[in-house]
Amino acid sequence: MNQSNAPLESLIRFLNESPTPFHAVAAMSTRLESAGFEYLNERDTWNVKAGGRYYTQRNGSSIIAWTMPTTRSLVDSGFRMVGAHTDSPCLRVKPNPEMHRHGYSQLGVEVYGGVLLAPWFDRDLSIAGRVSFKNTEGELDAALINFDKPIAIIPSLAIHLDREANSGRAINAQTFLPPILGQSDKKADFRALLKTQLEEGGHSVSEVLNYELSFYDTQSAALIGLDEAFLVSARLDNLLSCYMGLTALINANSDEGMLLVCNDHEEVGSMSAVGAQGPMLEHLLERLVVKSEDRSRMLARSMMISADNAHGIHPNFADKHDANHGPLLNKGPVIKINANQRYATTDVTSSQFRLLAQAVGANVQEFVVRSDMACGSTIGPITSAEIGVKTIDIGVPQFAMHSIREMAGTSDVMDTIEIFKAFYRLENV
């Protein structure tokens, strides 16, 4: 399928701007503001209007954007919801990270989520996230930082010193992973480094109090392949779904109720104030439809598409898939099915998704995990159970899930955006 590269170039910019969930939410907020969405602070009283476009955040790492229906009440319209998550597996900087060994300055890291560790070696790494600090007026403040250049690396041990390296060596997360930042005669003061970084960004800092910082790969997202059929980047799982949902929401031009929710903490179970198993979405719905009976009626007229990438069949490891359910890249988004409710898909919601795909001329594939393998999960079953909305789990097929460099098909991205737009325009779900 020949596609204009403009949306893909926009996607690449978004991926590069979003090394952490905090940066992803900031980038999404900027795009929403440019599209006429109004920010509503959870601390304030809200006054939403018919046809209004709004968004809110929690913790700076989870975001919900929505539009109110123009001609019907929200109870009669319901919401067409797309859900995704902002976090990705990574290496987080520990609270007291400084290490000084053999003249090398290193930082201790903690593994966040189910990281595929081997690809983190020998990459050009930087640090980004949020820092909380006391400003020069003695007040608590916080700011996003991004060193935005390679400042660290985790070097591999030479094959000459580990002849079994290619025979399945286990990676010890405590001892193998501390990145090297430089050489010095004494242990570095990491908080002093953060203070300098904040001050260079224009902040008046008295003391760095705490932080949530992650290492990330500085290599840009890119289109690859002889015909640029593939997108490669860090954090495709699941910033790709965030971007597709956001783009569809902004461009759907629907008179119906539309909603995009992108939660943090999916990779570690979703149980937090900002995760899908927390109350953020439920609190928003309670504010929009106050009466419990009306809210139940609204949800009965709603549907959610839980969007989280799917495992494409790898040509070198095809035996890891059920032979009849091996999705191919660039052959359409994937409906994810599991009899034990690891995915929330039903026959009704999957049929609705197929009709939407047919309407925009897109193909659809199916994924069912091998019966002798464990199945992962998504925010779909959690959100469906929390608020009682019918749900389907879908995703763009990808390779190298949870690696520092993941891969997906460009046609699948464009097709999924069109399906989401058609979904947002549906009169009845």
From TrEMBL:
<keyword id="KW-0645">Protease</keyword>
<keyword id="KW-0482">Metalloprotease</keyword>
<dbReference type="InterPro" id="IPR023358">
    <property type="entry name" value="Peptidase_M18_dom2"/>
</dbReference>
<comment type="similarity">
    <text>Belongs to the peptidase M18 family.</text>
</comment>
<keyword id="KW-0479">Metal-binding</keyword>
<dbReference type="GO" id="GO:0004177">
    <property type="term" value="F:aminopeptidase activity"/>
</dbReference>
<dbReference type="Pfam" id="PF02127">
    <property type="entry name" value="Peptidase_M18"/>
</dbReference>
<keyword id="KW-0378">Hydrolase</keyword>
<protein>
    <recommendedName>
        <fullName>M18 family aminopeptidase</fullName>
        <ecNumber>3.4.11.-</ecNumber>
    </recommendedName>
</protein>
<dbReference type="InterPro" id="IPR001948">
    <property type="entry name" value="Peptidase_M18"/>
</dbReference>
<keyword id="KW-0862">Zinc</keyword>
<keyword id="KW-0031">Aminopeptidase</keyword>
